[in-house]
Amino acid sequence: MRNLAGHGLILLAMTACMANGGSAAGQAVSDVRIEDGPQLSTPRATHQLVAAGDTIPEIFDVASGTSTRVDHDLGGQWNYMTLVKADARTALLAGGYREGRIEPTDRSWIIRFGEGAAS
């Protein structure tokens, strides 16, 4: 499996350029290169982190179709955040913007999955 950590750093650098003004944003967009990543459908994850549309993230159990709220408030409803897995049980959740207005954030959260949630 390919390490995707470098791709997250590229995205964060692009976000920083875009926050500094229109001309920097245009340059950042022209420098973006997209390539196919690893196939995510197999093996299918049994649990998904859902961290948008509410102030408190949830772990969604694919098999049962149920969600369980995580005991942490993100301080707002964020959309279009980026999740980059560091290893099997750790990920970085970063960026996004608040519900109702296009105002990017520099906030980030370290997610540490337990054994049950990491599958």
Describe what this molecule looks like in 3D.
There is one protein chain. The protein is α+β, with helices and mostly antiparallel strands. A three-stranded antiparallel β-sheet has the order 1-2-3, with no helix packed on it. A three-stranded antiparallel β-sheet has the order 5-6-8, covered by helices on one side. Strands 4-7 form a two-stranded antiparallel sheet. The chain has helices at 5-19, 22-30; strands spanning 47-50, 58-61, 66-69, 78-79, 82-87, 90-94, 97-98, 108-112.
Write the layout of secondary structure elements.
Layout: H1 5-19, H2 22-30, E1 47-50, E2 58-61, E3 66-69, E4 78-79, E5 82-87, E6 90-94, E7 97-98, E8 108-112
Antiparallel strand pairs: 1-2, 2-3, 4-7, 5-6, 6-8
| Continuous helix count | 2
Q: What is the chain-wise order of helices and strands?
A: HHEEEEEEEE
- Terminal-residue CA separation: 15 Å
Helix and strand content put the structural class at alpha+beta
The description of the largest β-sheet is:
3 strands, antiparallel
Strands, total number: 8
Low-confidence stretches: 1-20
The fraction of residues in strands falls at 25-35%
pLDDT averaged over residues = 74
DSSP helix fraction: 10-25%
Strand line-up in the sheet with most strands? 1-2-3
Rg, alpha carbons? 16 Å
Characterize the overall form: globular
